[in-house]
SRCR domain-containing protein
Amino acid sequence: MWKFTPCLLMTLPRAVSIILTGSGSTRCSGRVEVYHNNSWGTVCDDGWDLNDAQVVCRQLNCGPVLEVPQSAHFGAGTGQIWLDNVTCSGNESSLTECQHSGFGSNRCEHGQDAAVICSGPFLFVYWLAGSGSSRCSGRVEIFHNNVWGTVSDNDWDLNDAQVVCRQLNCGSALQAPRSAYFGAGTGQVWLSGVSCSGNESSLTECQHSGWGNPYYYYYNIHYSDAGVICSGTYIKTSFVLTGSGSTRCSGRVEVYHSNSWGTVCDDGWDLNDAEVVCRQLNCGSALQTPRTAYFGAGTGQIWLNNVTCSRSESSLIGCQHSGFGSNTCEHGQDAAVICSDAIRLVGSGSTRCSGRVEIYYNNSWGTVCDDRWDLNDAEVVCRQINCGSALQAPPSAHFGAGTGQIWLDEVTCSGNESSLTTCVHNQFGSHNCDHREDAGVICSVHLGQHIQSGFSQNVVIRTVEEVICHPEYNSTTYNSDICLLKLSAPVYFTDYIQPICLASKNSTFHSGISSWVTGCGFDCK
């Protein structure tokens, strides 16, 4: 007879069976479920790793393990959670031989259901990865020759994406994002010049340039990594940012509802609403809420209007709104967001525009090592967070040492990139640094006489502590285009630096009269 105690580890009885199931599962990939005491139950992902998954793959004759997705990647199960703290060496012939905490002994929820992806009987396996990815949207990665690698976006289109979506049982292809929309991968770029008709059963059946390319590998051209956004039959509502000039973390907000994409009207649209979108897409914090179709007017449905979020909602559809399709808006009112793109400045003495650089990757924040860190790199960060130009690129944990991961090292930017992660760097997490080498930035604004070739000798440089923009700020028009900058130190008026006197609430305005102002000023009182 088994004796159960809180700390006892035991082996499973031989009568246990095992299956892989869940949304998008196959015979060799899915949520792990165990049959015990006449009912099926899941396995908690506490301590779940490649060794445990290897035993499952071998037991099911599914070849080597490729991945160990956690957090209910194939959907949450129901009923019992039979196992927790499973500990295998990887050599067991059955999961029943591994140690665990006892049947039903756990404090888990089904959001922690463990899963496996085995290589199976196939030569090639696909995975959608990257920042903001889901089971049916992400950067396309292929497992070939025992190594994961990406696909170049050269000639990448909806026909190619359609093959991937169908192969992953993710419905139809909605978009075929390019330019590392879900973030840049690392290592190999396996395929380039992919050309599918859309009817192939596997991406590897499509025409392509051959496996691997030394140019891509050695020069780290991962800013061309291809992605897919599939309809994902299990998703009732999803979101994308799109439009002219959009990026993965900035663009016109579109909602997928009732089998079609539609926009959001900008009535009442503010930073609280945008914050929910940015967080839902793993894009950091909301910087701006452009209105009046800033990224171009959409087409088709306008799904949401009068959206009112408190910032704490996990999804935009959890906010108050007028109901799907209930509005009197036009597409000239399409709402948009500009997010920080999963980058932040923090640390001792930091401001919104100066601090220790941290990026969000693989569900956690981490720092950047200062090896080769310079003004070009800092310039990209300052532009990415809408903080002007780089004044300094302080090394050696100038804003204090961070904790946890150091995500980037040997960052090398030209200064023109749109995101720090698109610069050349080592693989994520690959470094020889400690947190005493955390990199920082100090962004700035230049005040004074501006001439065609640059600023004159009368220039005054100040760091920016805060940027407060008019809620209807839109760089494509002149209306409401004003921002207030909180600077690090006072600015004294000269012949080249003068105040801008803003109208008071009692001012009289005359129809047909407009004014244009360039530069930075103060509200005269």
User: Anything to note?
Assistant: The chain has four domains: 17-118, 125-230, 238-339, 343-525. The chain has a mean pLDDT of 78. The first strand starts at residue 17 and ends at 26. The radius of gyration is 26 Å.
